[in-house]
Amino acid sequence: MAVSLQQKRLEELRLQLNEHCHRYYVLDDPLISDGEYDRLFQELIAIEEKYPELVTSDSPSQRVGGAALEKFEQVEHRLPMLSLENAFDDQDLYSFEDRLLRFLLTTERFPYMAEPKLDGLAVELVYEDGVLIRGSTRGNGMIGEDITSQLRTVHSIPLRLKLPDLPRLEVRGEVFMDRSGLEKLNQQRADDGEPLFANPRNAAAGSLRQLDPKITAQRPLRFFVYGVAEPGDTGCRNQQELLQFLATLGLPVNPLVSLCPDIGAVIARFAELSRLRHNLAYEIDGMVVKVNDFTLQTRLGAKARAPRWAIACKFPATQATTQIVQVDFQVGRTGAVTPVALLTPVDVGGVMVSRATLHNNDEILRKDLHIGDTVLIQRAGDVIPEIVKAIPEKRNSSAEPVTFPKDCPVCSHPLLKPEGEAITRCVNPHCPAQRLRSIVHFCSKAGLDIEGLGKKSVEQLFDLKLIKDLPDIFRLQREDLAGLEGWGEKSAENALAGVRAAKEPSLTRFLAALGIRFVGEVTAGLLERSYKSLERLLTVTREELLEVEGLGEQAANSIVEYFSDPSVLEMMRAFHDVGVRPQALEQSGGNLLLSGEVLLFTGSLKKLSRTEAKKLVKEHGGEVASGITQKLTCLVVGEKPGSKLKKAEEKGKKILTEDEFLQVLDGQLKI
């Protein structure tokens, strides 16, 4: 009897949580707070742990990622996932329609669906009786890889459809990462000494092809559906009806899809998307044009590799040619050695580019790069400069291949390339370049954000040996600074005030500032919530860390290795001696007035710095958003708030002035 009651409650919880997940991630219209969702989720987890035989594949608990795979299994698509032919200008689109009319032996025009072409990874989702049973990559169109466990972690992909009576539905769509997600992920990878993803597509593909689904679960992936394998099985007559039907099933459809009555309207829509693309939260690299009517699609059929009834209209690439002048090898704070090409400056899409990352030695060899080469470069995602390829036809006979050094370019210690990794590292813990980068990071906004100690100031103090290691920051005196070039009494006092203010950081911020490999702000937050104190972390075991939900094996190994190093333990004692006392937020006196609230600041604040404002939010139990997202509950506006204010008003978010925000913290006003 007890089991049947728990089974009934689990069914209720699964329905509720899946519906709330759909409203949050797909409709951007949540009905409950994050705290309420968490309470329902924890109730579900508690029942499933007690009765593991009741766990189902559509349970929200399956989104956290299961056991790591040894390899990906191959999956044959029942119907091939064809590629698309490309169009690049208006004339190509007119020619596309001309071919269709000739094939159909008609002069009668027909409507098209125009859909943004996302820069992501095409996948197929197979639902049986409404439940997701398999997900796979497109692969070569006939055979892909089974990434079901990874796709289950993408919150906008429903684990159960809203109309469960469909015997089988094979859905096709695109998994992608938006701009802000890529920026945060690359920042974390840079902090961990890992190579950056060049564009959102690489990030999405790299995330889905992680053998460990728990890593995928930590990546900010999204999904839009664009079709099904066999439209006739749905009862829909055209692409417009199909997309509307898929939306009723709970699948996310891109809101920018548009029905165009003729090819002229298609061309106008392409021009409009070309103007809009830079303001979107995600990358698009063109527009897919489809004949709307399924009867016509069937008559048109497909060629060997592409359907006749669809075409991808691509935006012009933002590329240019220039020359490699030389290559510098930079050593990061984790010892990662990154080659950077210095280029003859060239305008790429309105931006002067003079440097481009080469990522690693494998990339140098794969692209066969030489000093003096003429190269094709592009701003990947219109942001990150990268070398696409060399142009060997223009290579001078005296050009020398780019050679990766065997020894560290800073300390001359032999470099090491660990097996299975793309990155070459300097493993000398006393390497000055690593030490300097570590100190710069510690003082930066990503670290303790010590006002008055920016990158140039830290480099100056390091060169003068006033700062040799992190605790030395807290030993600085006014007489050390005031007489230095570029300093004075006021700048010295400002820096020392910043140092004093940094002596009691949150434990999360302190751990992130240390620069432990694989420990960014998110992982640091997990450690703070689980262990509450720095002292406890100094003795934590790998087995204990692996029990922390959301903490991966790489991070666990790195943390244990870091705090087992005698020099690190000595540094921790030195921190204590100079008065540094990291605090868990629960112990720092916050009264949790902002518990459950997610705030964002915009415009110029007069009474607080942006850093102070964010710190106050966290100390009082709230979260800080990076943009106008569905999670946001309140926007705090200063002077000249810009477009965020309008967007927040349109979404019905609470708006506070800076003074009202301070009144909330004083208990005089409630959100």
Automatic annotation (TrEMBL):
Cofactor section: Mg(2+); Mn(2+)
GO cellular component: cytosol
One MF annotation (Gene Ontology) recorded for this entry: DNA binding
Cited InterPro entries: BRCT_dom, BRCT_dom_sf, DisA/LigA_HHH, DNA_ligase, DNA_ligase_AS, DNA_ligase_CS, DNAligase_adenylation, DNAligase_N
Enzyme class: ligase
EC number: 6.5.1.2
Residue ranges occupied by any BRCT domain in the UniProt entry: 589-671
Name of the protein in its database record: DNA ligase
Species: Desulfocapsa sulfexigens (strain DSM 10523 / SB164P1)
Gene name for this UniProt entry: ligA
